[in-house]
C-alpha cells in the first residue's frame, strides 16, 4: 500500500493550499508536517530535502517534490485531472496560470503593510472582475458544460473554485455580475470530495491571521 | 504545409525570450510581430486573442496561446523536449520552474530605479551561486551524463543555458566554482540549432536598455 503524501509547510494556506485542494478533490488522504520554527526549516535544508531550499515540499511516490506548479501538475496528471490530450492539457495550463496570478495577490495580501491592504483588496476585486472572471464566464456560457475543459473535472476547476471562495471571503458579492460562475461555484462545491473538504474538520486551512503571519516571519526571515 | 508559429511581444527579451530559445533549439522557424505603439497592443486585446489581456502571445497549431509557462510546456511536449514519462516530466518541471524564478528576478530588475538595480544585481548573483547553480552542478555530478534529465536534451537544459548566460552578463565570473556547469554551457552551446541562435543575426534579443523599459511602460501603462 502506498504511503500517504506528506506536506511540509507552515500551518496555514500560503502556496500549499492549492495542493491541499487538489489532493482533497482527488480523494487522496495526506499527512502534514507543520513548520513552526526556523530550526525546522534549517533541518530540512541541511538534510537536502528541499531542491531549492524552499517549501512547499510534498513527499509522494518516493520523491520530494518542490515548486508549487510542478507539484500541482504531477498530482493532477496522476489523478486524471489534467485533460485527455495535449490540447486539453494546454488549455487547463493556461487557465490555471491565469488563476494563479490572481491567487498570488491573495497569498501576498496578509504580508502587506496595513495601509496597503485595503487598497490591495480593491485591486484584487478589479482584476477579478475585469480581467479574469469575464473570461471564465464566457467559457462556461460558450460550451454550456459544467466544467471548464473537456466536460470533466480538472485542475483548472479546482484552482478557480479555490480562488473564487478566497475572494468571496474578502468581497462577498464579487460574483454578482457573473451568473454562470455563480452556478458553477455551487456545482463544483457539491462534488462529494470537494464538499467534504469544505466542511469543518477537513484539512482546509482558515484565512490567514496574525498568528500565521508571525509564524511565516519566524520561519523564513533570516 | 503548416504555417510558422507567430510571436507577439515587444522587440526585447522579457517573458518571450525563453520561448524564442525553445523554438530555436527545436529548429523551428518562427515569425514575430513587435509592439511599437499602444494602439497595436489595444487592437490585439480588442480582437480577443489575448486570453487575460496579456502577452506573450504565440499563435501555433490554430491556437492563440498565452501564459509563458503554458506556452513553454506545450512547445516542450510538441518538440519532444519534455522527457519520456511523468517522472522525467516532473523533474524537468521542477528544474525549469526554479530557473524561471531566477530569470524573473533578472527580468524585473530592468524596471527598477537605479539604486535598487545595483542591489538586485547582487542578490541575483548570490541566488544563482548559492541556491540554483549548486543544485544543477550536483545533478550533473551525480549522474555524470551530458544532459540534466534522461540523458537527452530537454527544455531543462535549454532553460538552464539561457539562465547561465543571463547571469554571466551581470557577473562574468559566476561559474568559477562550477566546473561541470562550465562544461555543460560549452556543450549545450555547441548543439547546432543553439549555436546558430547564439550567432549574430538570429532572433535572440539583446539585454534590455532604457529605451525598451520606457516603451513597455508606455504601452502597458505602468
TrEMBL record, chain A:
Question: By what name is this protein known?
Answer: glutathione transferase
UniProt GO BP: glutathione metabolic process; xenobiotic metabolic process
Domain of life of the organism encoding this protein? Eukaryota
Say which species the protein is native to.
Propithecus coquereli (Coquerel's sifaka)
Show where the GST C-terminal domain sits. Answer: 85-208
Per UniProt, the enzyme's principal EC class comes to: transferase
UniProt cross-references to Pfam families, sorted A to Z: GST_C_3 (PF14497), GST_N (PF02798)
In the Enzyme Commission scheme, what number(s) does this protein have?
2.5.1.18
The answer to whether keyword Transferase applies is yes
- Source lineage: Eukaryota, Metazoa, Chordata, Craniata, Vertebrata
Keywords, comma-separated and alphabetical = Transferase
MF terms from GO for this chain are:
glutathione transferase activity; protein homodimerization activity
Q: Which residues form the GST N-terminal domain?
A: 3-83
Please name the InterPro entries in this protein's record: Glutathione-S-Trfase_C-like, Glutathione-S-Trfase_C_sf, Glutathione_S-Trfase, Glutathione_S-Trfase_N, GST_alpha, GST_C, GST_superfamily, Thioredoxin-like_sf
Claim: Cytoplasm is one of the keywords in the record = no
Mind telling me which Gene3D superfamilies this protein's record contains? 1.20.1050.10, Glutaredoxin
What GO cellular component term, any one, is given?
Answer: cytosol
Family statement drawn from the similarity comment of this UniProt entry:
Belongs to the GST superfamily. Alpha family.
Automatic annotation (TrEMBL), chain B:
> Biological process GO annotation list?
glutathione metabolic process; response to caloric restriction; xenobiotic metabolic process
Q: Which SUPFAM superfamilies match?
A: GST C-terminal domain-like, Thioredoxin-like
Query: Sorted alphabetically, which InterPro entries does this protein's record hold?
Result: Glutathione-S-Trfase_C-like, Glutathione-S-Trfase_C_sf, Glutathione_S-Trfase, Glutathione_S-Trfase_N, GST_alpha, GST_C, GST_superfamily, Thioredoxin-like_sf
Write out the entry's keywords from A to Z. Answer: Transferase
TM region positions: none
Q: What is its EC number?
A: 2.5.1.18
- Please tell me which top-level EC class this enzyme sits in: transferase
> Which residues does the UniProt record annotate as the domain GST C-terminal?
85-208
Q: Which family does it belong to?
A: Belongs to the GST superfamily. Alpha family.
Official protein name in the record: glutathione transferase
What species is this protein from? Propithecus coquereli
